[in-house]
């Protein structure tokens, strides 16, 4: 990786009538990076990618590709390329003609085009005899690979993806996620991937940018997004999470949490904490019903509640516990560690400080 | 179960099939039969011969046919060029205005074709709107714009405009926006997108529009009579004359059969080349 970013977005702003779709966005993407941009529908991610590929022009702000300003360059003159959500394969062409399309536009000779198309079929692990097959006769996964091959034939500086896997069934999606990640490593290209599924983003990307209402909420590697979200929005975006409002040091008043004396004064309870305490379901443990044994260390934070429901997720079991002061706590255990007691049983939950995270906002 | 469905389907199709056979197929069979009768007979109880077809080549009827087909081809090509941008705008650019355009174009069909053509006669004739205004303003006039081949082609273009416009708009509507965007994204210029994406993907609409206008224009008679005067004789004119003034039904039938054979084969060939189901809404 070089120091200079391959893509540099500065103050990108887009307005449609009275509606502001993007609020002065800044972003730097490094060469060879796999960046996922994640957000719910209406968060502005589609607007952003349309600006990046040149299907629309920004109201304000600039986009730099290395040293070249590209925000005013029309789509057909930008050295970037996109895999569309619909894949946008040309239905009247064969697989080979689709892949060769960018080369044909560039005036590459038919022999050279064919050779390159066959190479790309190999790279995407499609049989070479697919060259003459009609794209309308290909399966969903095969079309996906053809679309990728066509984009790679263009040899773009940056390859954009607009939720190309969203229409596929779960198993095929998982397979293609792995293939895409593998392809990223093999080609060394810069990938920018838009999706509404954080799970999909986490499976593939180096860094994740979470979008909300036309702004970036957080841009960080998957680990950080998962365990140290900057806001409730980001925390709740990735599946189940338990959140407790924190006012001063008096946790128990607000949320019914019991904090061990030894934990006070340690982060995040140093100073006067204020915000929202987050703990993921898999980090919450059931404490033994008969109390802790002599050798067991008491967890830093505990609370009691009543077991309400259990959901089988396959490798894991998810439980809903109703704390004595009301509300709902979600706990997840591995199947082998499943909770043995009956529904309605009184349970004590606990976790350590290093497993939770204080979100600064309320 | 499936066999029962098929039987019921056949049963349900019977009324329409009967109607079509009686009103469409039967007259065709009669005309075909008359075309192989000896000259100037009015009954089918005669020894068949092909004298009427021989007449087609002996007399100058082939030149009437050539004029009809030639002007139909010209009108179709002009209509395609004129209608493409408009159809494109209707399918992809205008939103509510498309409805206004549709209503506007369809409304012209409410007035009979002959009356509209007479309107053009008044516009183009000597002393009419164009020539009269010019003479009034400049003092010098000319012979008017009627009675030539270009004005007949103009008439064909004018009358068959909707028959090209709507199928074309339908065809262009079938071109996915994403395919056009993807082509641009992959470096294609507007001209390349038109050539590589728009035209091939709109082909069913282009084919339907072209066939409709060509078939109708090849059999047209009013435009050449009203606007063209006697500048050229079209084949439909000859057919009419043979049946009425000439009192030679076998000749008229033979001329009609030649026209039907040519137009029929063009239409069949065209239809076989495109996926008509696509334009009827089946997904590809």
TrEMBL record, chain A:
Which controlled-vocabulary keywords does the entry list? ATP-binding, Nucleotide-binding, Transport
InterPro entries the UniProt entry points to: AAA+_ATPase, ABC_SmlMolc_Importer, ABC_transporter-like_ATP-bd, ABC_transporter-like_CS, Mo/tungstate-bd_C_term_dom, P-loop_NTPase, Transp-assoc_OB_typ2
- One Pfam entry name: ABC_tran
GO terms of biological process kind? quaternary ammonium group transport
Source organism superkingdom:
Bacteria
Which Gene3D superfamilies does the record associate with it? Answer: P-loop containing nucleotide triphosphate hydrolases (3.40.50.300)
Give the ABC transporter domain ranges: 7-238
Question: What do the Gene Ontology cellular component annotations say?
Answer: ATP-binding cassette (ABC) transporter complex
Give one GO molecular function term: ATP binding
**Name of the protein in question:** Spermidine/putrescine transport system ATP-binding protein
UniProtKB/TrEMBL annotation, chain B:
Instruction: Quote the SUPFAM superfamilies the UniProt record gives.
Output: MetI-like (SSF161098)
The topology of this chain with respect to the membrane is:
Multi-pass membrane protein
Q: Which GO terms describe its cellular component?
A: plasma membrane
Per the database record, which ranges form the ABC transmembrane type-1 domain? 65-270
Q: What main location does UniProt list? A: membrane
Keyword Membrane found: yes
**What UniProt keywords are attached to this protein's entry?**
Cell membrane, Membrane, Transmembrane, Transmembrane helix, Transport
Task: Report the subcellular localization.
Answer: Cell membrane
Does the record's keyword annotation contain Transport? yes
Which InterPro entries does this entry report, sorted A to Z?
MetI-like, MetI-like_sf
Q: Per the UniProt entry, what are the Gene Ontology biological process annotations, in alphabetical order?
A: transmembrane transport
| Domain of life (superkingdom) | Bacteria
Q: Which residues cross the membrane?
A: 65-87, 99-125, 145-166, 199-222, 254-274
Q: Which family does it belong to?
A: Belongs to the binding-protein-dependent transport system permease family. CysTW subfamily.
Q: What is this protein called?
A: Spermidine/putrescine transport system permease protein
Please report the organism this UniProt entry assigns to the protein: Caenispirillum bisanense
Its taxonomic path starts at: Bacteria, Pseudomonadati, Pseudomonadota, Alphaproteobacteria, Rhodospirillales
